[in-house]
Protein 1
Amino acid sequence: MVTVKQTFPKLSDGSINLDAWLTHFRRYVQLKDITSIKQAAEFTRTASLGLTTFYGQPFLEQGLEMADILLDMHLDADTAASAIVIGIARQVKLDHDVLKKNLGESITKLVQDVLHMDMLDTLQARGQIQLDRLRKAFLAMTSDIRAVLIRLAERTCIMRGIKNINPAERARIAQETLNIYAPLANRLGIGQLKWELEDIAFHFIHPSIYKAIADFLAEKRIDREKRIAENITLIKTHLDQSGIKATIQGRAKHIHSIYSKAIRKAVDYQHIYDFSALRIIVSDNESCYAALSIVHQLYQQIPEEFDDYISHPKPNGYRSIHTAVLDYNGKTLEIQIRTEQMHDEAEHGLAAHWVYKETEARVDARITLLRQLLAWQTDLTQQAPAQLNLQLNDTIYVLTPAGDIIDLPVGATSLDFAYHIHTQIGHRCRGAKIRGHIVPLTRTLQTGDVVEIITAHEGAGPSRDWLNQHAGYLKTSRARAKVAHWFRQLDAEQKIEKPSPEKQKLQPLPHASTPPEQHQMSTSSTGFHVAGVDDLLTRIARCCKPIPGDAIIGYITQGRGISIHRENCRSIRDEISTREGRLIPVAWDKHKHDHYYADIEILAGSRENLLKEITALLANIKIDLVSLKSMISHKNNLTHIFITIKIENTTQLKQLINQLHQLHHVIDVRRVHT
């Protein structure tokens, strides 16, 4: 496991000797002015007296350890100073004015940028899509990439220090590290942190497997080191003879990478033979290829293991030549060849790009590289990267109350959010809450907003004002299309209901629940009053499944009696304009009691035991469940549940819908209409 525990110089009373620590930094960190670092350290020492992190490390020690990591990545003094103060700023909730007074505007802004991402720590992303959105959100929530690097440094310190906390919580943090932080470090090209985070997390999640691989490597250590030394001597001799100045070092194989490779190749880790690896570091690109030629002259190459990441860099900007050969003992030897700058970038990633002074042409190339590094987003600001400023300006990431992350275009409103969740939620939307505060539907959302939609009663519809572009209700074309479709349907229905000159005989249908006096109502044998007809065969239509309390209409079928529909059934609305003579008023027989089928759709955040809670609720209130079907939408990680139940009337149905709404993570419940 790669662990680097910082030992700090101490005074006689056991406190950290800040002067000695700063002197230590002056020796190897190329910073002209470390005043801000000293101020941050002294401020943190005073503000954090007696306080520790959740795993027991004093806040000052954690801050200095983070500064070590970031300064080793060649970041600036303000970044190190912000890292030193971030822990105590979060712990005691230091406000903007206090930070600005003691540390200045630049550090204060960076600290608050880091704190802004804290809300993402509480999320439990479910599924690959949600994980991907969560990683994107970490980048999108900050305008300064240094804030992301501070979070990575902080997570590294946490992983180094949580050995003795509750095992279950330790495993959760480790899994989160593998899911979010290690991939983020990899995306930014920071190999130094990626490997450390992966190895420590793997150690906590799979301790027995980790120990087995570590023990296996320890057994082979002496032979491996001897073999590495022999090959270094051989290669160095031939490089010197060719006039190529190079540094050659053995390269440690990380335990998590060995495990991952064994899984990928479907073999036992003992059958991974490339534990031995070398790294050749030269001065320039030309020397890389010259060294490669010498290596291939000395050893038998394994062609399928060759990769030229100098000519074709990885998406995260990584550059190096990789080759694998068979040494004189017939064993595999991995070799990497790169320049000093490539090596620094591979270890320190994004931060290393600001170390090298280059021409303006190189600045443009660097911006292109940043776009590759941050491939989760499609656009970056055109500002020079020397400003360390990152604007991810095409997508925002907002959250549902259940903690699911939704991606929307910049400028999207709370009404856009409602339609993204579900069309019916959009239609019924009447308000929204952002972090518990009611906001207008035109409120433009920001990354990190927690949005709760307030809906009207079932059957409510949108407003025509929502389609007015100048009103600012809707940004997304998807939501506008849904609203426009709703009004097209409404206009078509109103056109059907309005009598045309050639069909003046058509009159509005009477409301069947209160039949007009001019119709003589007779009772059918199946529980309906039918206008003017005795003892007709009646049956419930399968398309709309009316139940007592619904307004109904009868349709005279050919040879199958009267089919009973809801008045707003779409199939009946179609018949009004074509077969008006076959519609007949009907009403429920209030003295006859029976059970009827009803279809319900439930929209909920994905979570365990939801189906169990729904079936338990139905059993408790003695409603029979006829069928149940559920599916998870991979687009938004929501669960759609469709149930068919036996019900007595609309009153009982409304009570059930209200109770279903009370279940945790349920977003919407509605009776399915046709």
Protein 2
Amino acid sequence: MKNKEKLIIFDTTLRDGEQCPGASLESSEKLEIARQLERLGVDVIEAGFPIASPGDFEAVKTIAHEIRKPIICGLARATKKDIERAALAVKPARRPRIHVFIATSPIHMKYKLRKAESEILRIVGEAVRYAKKFVEDVEFSPEDAARSKPEFLFRVIERAIAAGATTINIPDTVGYTTPIEFGELLRAIRENVPNIDRAILSVHCHNDLGLAVANSLSAVLNGARQVECTVNGIGERAGNASLEEIVMGIRTRKDIYPVYTDIHTREIVKASRLVSSLTGLLVQPNKAVVGANAFRHESGIHQDGILKRRVTYEIMNPVEVGYGDSKLVLGKHSGRHAFSERLKRLGFRLSKPQTERAFDAFKKLADKKKEVFDGDLTAILEGEIAKIPQIYELDYVHTSSGTGTIPTATVRLKTKGKILQDASSGDGPVDACYRTIDRITGVKGKLLDYALRAITGGKDAQGEVTLRVQFENEILTGRGTSTDIIEASAKAYLSAINKYLHEPTLKRQGAHQKGLL
């Protein structure tokens, strides 16, 4: 931390984040999130907009009473009524703050406020002084600062600091700016506001063009020492700068940013999941830092690199943000290295030929499934270990059935380099399939038991069929797996037939010798 300054993390998940359509929270839910934010180590919690509703007022008041470590902040427009309501809500806090704002861009002043620059300057001074009567810690925001005239913005900021503002927040309210110009604006504020050294410079960026985090970090490089952000980046429209991305960006690129944070990063995933659960806003799988795929690898090249040395394809340790280890996802892009490592983890020790056959079976399955789970692999491997030579191997199966139609099946089998095909009907698609196999193989079995179960979860789960078949006086078991239950059924039946043909019992051997079979 030598020669580095602290960056204050101002979390507005409970205020701006809750403004996201569909993300409304109950008071008890807000308190639960606030407790997690305290564990996370945020410096400021903007708990709500007290004037907005009685419920919001009570939520802010409850959080101010219960949460002791962070500063508890309430938002207020630049009016006495708003400020009084915010002051009353944050009064129980050990460290209260009132956040006052008014728009300063030409478009907002003309069409929303209908006020001249002179009026805005007067209101800013009066509002900040009034808020100062209730709390020592007053933050002021010139709303839509990124689209304000710089010269007027400088005068507004100077007036707010002169009136007692201790933090000046520069919002990119509509996500309009870019990293270079926003950095230049921050630098211009530091160079043109005479009393700027008496306040902490803050930023609040929206993500309408996907630049909220980039703009915030650019501001940090140009003197901002507070960043306003939300968990998972939730908020109005396209959301706010994402807390986890800001924090991990600074932590990961210590060589670039002259600041540090006091965030307990191992609480990040917990915070993300809690906010997602309570707001009902799901986190996209490819979301940076907290997305389900943030530390998952499917590409064989990437998996090989990760297995050799994690930093080849991961710039962050998943443990640092509250995940477990990196996850190598087995799918159609996976290679032999990751496949072999997963076999070892599952406790299987296969010969090289067995491994090759199992890998081929895995690749075929991976073409049908988005992800191959351990249960899928176990089914493949157990079949490989107890391998019975495939006298008959399923090449193709097609069934037709439905209300008012006769179930039929067309089956194609491979045997000794030849392809045999036939068709038959039955009481159902599985029965039709089995009758066709009987016709092709010349072996007639009687199905005694049939069981189907899903090996793994999801709509593309593999089905495992286990059955018992009677051939003459012998009962054998068969097992087959596939994402298609008809195919799994056919494989299971063929498994039993192959056992029957490959492993004749002593009784059958004797019968053969007597010419009875």
Protein 3
Amino acid sequence: MSNKFFVKARQTIIRLYSRRLALAWVLLWGGLAVWLGPTAWNFSHQLKGTLTGVDDSPAETVRVALTKNFTTALAFPTAIIWDSRGLSEDTASVVWGRIMQSAKQAPGVTQVYDGKSLLGGWPRPDWHAGFVELKADDYGEAEKLIPGLRKQVLTDAVAPKEHPTWITGGPALFFDLNIASTEGLRDAELMALPVTFIILLLVFRSAVAAVLPVLVAGLGVVVTLGILSFTSTIWPMTFFVPNLVTMIGLGVGIDYSLIYLARYRRERAQHLTVIESLEVTRNTAGHTIVCSAALVMTGFVALVVIPIQFFHSIALGGILVVGTVAGATLTFMPSAIFLMGRSLEYGRVFNSNRRVAQKVRQTYQIWTRLLLYYPEYFFLAGMSALVLVALPINHLLVTSLQASTLPPHSESRLGYESLQKELGQGWLMPTIVLAQHGTEGAEMGPEMLAQEKELVARIKRLENTDRVISLAAPPEDSSQRREQAGLLTGSPESGQTILLAISREDPQSPTGRLWLHQLQRVLHEQEESYPQGAKYLVGGVAATTTATDEVIFAALPKVIMLTLVTTFFLLIYYMQSILVPLKAIILNLFCVLAAYGFQVLWFQQGVGHCISSIFPHTDGLNTIVLVICFCALFGLSMDYEVFILSAVRECWLDQRNFKIAIEDGLEKTSGIITSAALIMVSVFLCFAFGSVVETQQIGMGLSFAVMLDATLVRLILAPSALALMGKWAWWMPGHPMPGSARKRDHRPLE
């Protein structure tokens, strides 16, 4: 009697303690969501564009010189575009005068230059452009002035509705990019959450159980965005951060919750108590989630190697959201399960069909046995398919932000396209050549003018050059000469002048970048021809993005090496094997390359545009997209690899029969991985249908890679590679040979 009493008392104490602890975790996460929710909602208002200069680069030196000695109208090119076609000349003149006057009165505007008084050969008398000088020290400050400028012009100018005024230029493009990405983010969330709930409802057949993973992932995303909102006051955040945080947070968070909840329900089906089931789930699925989260975070940690603050903010967001959703899965999820008890199964909509489940298992058994009988053929076929999909990467071109990546209705895109049509492709983002004349001051003598005239002639001979504006070739009109002299001549003590080189193609396109490299080569040859002459530095938006890309590509080998090494050692620690981690890394690399090949095919070669006009036909892939996809994909692709290997290794250690272990591992993980992959692909596809091209490229790349990983890699390559390695798959230096030790070592299974 006394023993029974003490046993019951102990169970009661454990139950009370667990209930108190579970309630504390639920209240903690709920309190964090309530506290950080409003700041997370307002996070979009604290974002900045993607243009960040590289310290000590020529482009950054030119930008500093422009803001200090010249005009910010060139440092942060901003324009007011107005088309008065259909209005009388007198009416158009009056309205344009109001537009110019109201723009000058906008906060942060120091001057507005009328394009007609600045440039000769104006295309049309009924088309107007004004170039705005903003009082700003960097692009972040310039972006903040765009809303005030637009509001001032819209309020005071009173332009006819059928003749709208457009504010465009570099800062306006980045500002509209933030707005469009925020709108696209909320649209994607509205699509992703219902789709995810439906899939979970089909998996768990219970409304309450289907809601729980969505709730856990939502908590992780909200808490992460709230924390990032506080850090953004001291650490600038780009528009990529909330999109990436929400995309990765929802996909990974729901996946982790699905794995955890599925394992718990499986243990409950074995007639274990709630506490016993949670204990087993924590020791199996919980360990697997920890390993998976560490692998995903490793990919984002590698971004810190790139010496650009933009990537540091993305790394922070990625690391924080993966850690947060994993923490919510391991603490909030079991606490909610414990408190709900049997209520977890409420809202059951239909029962499972045992006959269908049996057919599915039989199909997997037949497939696995066939694969294990001819592993070498299946492995060669799978690798051939991966290589085939990756082949388009040979045609990969790199591009940067272009106006065409914005939604068609964006004000900055409409104005930019109007300016391109009337003046040419490169007018709003000219390449700025800073000439440093030493101690002779900005007053150019005959010899300097002759050298610059020769340089202008060399630049004009380049195939993609549209026009060159310089002091050596002033316009005939006296007022235009004065305007140009004011723009192109710095303060006398600076000893600097500038010339503007305009390209025929978009400066951010691959063709424009090639022309920029040709221009830099011409400047280098000019310096060699006149050693005592001016020294030249190239600046402007295109030069800034090109310099940023050069830094990225220089750091990319370090990023790749750090990701591979850390992933390899984490897998060795977790799997207690050498060959299995090596195999996983090789397959992941090919999977990432295949995702790049698909992105090239879908966007750059226009296959996606042929299928749907939603997907634009782009000049290339954004450099930032390529880096983010590599770091995110390498971690995400390891998820299912870890789940399968854990199941196979547990069965191997239990029975020491490798074929049975592979067959059993595939069968146990098939349903979970298929459901998890379907959810993650659905979430990423919701973002792929957004309005910002860069977000589309990330969404399509991630969704395709996950789909490839859950099908080709999971069903063919991973098991066939394990079969080819045989018992050597679990060989570890310093440990007994595989099969010699009979000690059972149960590892996490999921």
